[in-house]
Design brief:
about 325 residues, alpha/beta, eight-stranded mixed sheet, 8 strands, about 40% helix
Length: about 325
Amino acid sequence: MSGETVPYHLRQNKHVDRQLFIELLSHASRVKPVKDALYISFGGVYFEDFKAIHQVFGTERLLSIEKEGWIVRRQEHNKPYGCIKCSQLTSGELVNNIGAIRQRFGKRQLICWLDFSDASKRRTQLEEISVLAKNAREFDVLRITMNANPANLLPLVPNETTEARDQRRFEKLRDDFSDMIPRVIELVDATKKGFPRFVQDMIKHQIQTSLSSRPDLFFQPLGSYSYSDSEHTMVTVTGTFLKVERVNDYIARTRIGDFEFAGLGWELRHINVPILSQREKLTLDQKFGNRKTSAQVAKSLKFQVNKKPQESEEMLKSYFRFHRYYPHFHRIQ
């Protein structure tokens, strides 16, 4: 995850996705307090998720992993709280030693975010998800981010038609991942619109297959989202491991079903909010709740948030849907 060129904290769609994760955890915390859990993720240089987890829940057992030693040393300088432990580990080393790591922190509930960005290692990433699922315990929370940009499947061919490109990608999917998904792979799966769902289905199948030898344990999805902050589309899946007989009780006690953006049935929601100036944001916020549709709001504005009118309208619709989670940036003097 450390290879990103866009600063983690300046990506508006990822920010919304991260805030939705915090909302999901706030519901989960009603049954198993997040404050008492061990939280593990790729902290990067900015530790944005660690800040949120600590500020909202007071969690003090925080482990950041990173494979590059020079970045770990930079992390030690940048970490916002002394309770964050920075370790030089790959995701593979993490999942293969998760029992010992859990033991080190007192056998606690685990909240683990595997934030994968390398599109060339999807199969390895799915295998790592499987290892973690096989070692999961009741109430553990697993969050996965994977690249869902179909352009990464094959290099571009000059002057290639869209139809020919999608056909090549479709054949690549069928050759490489037919054993990683329990359904027939279709042409739409290789397109920008369909590939995020395909990636989610692979994650779902991998986790469910991993639990086939543990019939008492069930992976309950809590929320799934897709978003793009550059040319890359990402998919995130968050869920928890529960005893089969306690699933209904968990849903009732956490009231997760009351959260409008939850996804208890593997619903995949797309986040596509625009980059807005402060004045534009204030203008849109003033129009929220006035019973006008996104199309009506778009016509009333003196500006578009995208060059294409239809895309601009779709981004406005997404903004109104997720406006409570939109990031605020202010100059500090």
